[in-house]
């Protein structure tokens, strides 16, 4: 290892320059930069989490829209107060379409049938209808609501099937037909395998 060179100072005295001082300064700078990076990362995560927890939209009767707890589930409907069994959580309504119009739709994710052969409700643009935000859950024990359809009014009411606590996400079954039409097993949530592929 190379020893430190004596360096003359203003008064002519010779002092040893310590090469370790420079490496210590570098280490301190790197440590400080790392600490700042960690602190920024923590702040960004806190911001993201708070943003995720913030309601995007809320209704005075006690429900709100936030990011779903289901991974990849998009938005979801949450209770912002406690609900008892049988309480109405929201309404599902939208454009009423004939069978032919419904068949021609490219995006059928918000299409609800069961109102009659020529009465299908498309809630894609019914942003003020809370029930359009509800997600299904393949874990049947997590379902806490159901759709009660009113054929005469061409709408469905989302009703609590058990007590729901404030902060819980609301889940209702979309029905087997919805998932089978998308090639998904309604019991598991996995892609259906064709008999020819088994």
UniProtKB/TrEMBL annotation:
UniProt-recorded name of the protein: SET domain-containing protein
SUPFAM superfamilies found in the cross-reference section: SET domain (SSF82199)
Superkingdom to which the source organism belongs: Eukaryota
A GO CC annotation given for this chain: polytene chromosome
Keywords: Membrane, Transmembrane, Transmembrane helix
Gene Ontology molecular-function annotations: histone H4K20 methyltransferase activity
PANTHER family linked to this entry: N-LYSINE METHYLTRANSFERASE KMT5A
Record Pfam families: SET
Key word Protease present: no
Membrane-spanning ranges: 28-49
BP GO terms, sorted: regulation of transcription by RNA polymerase II
Cross-referenced Gene3D superfamilies: SET domain
Domain SET: 61-175
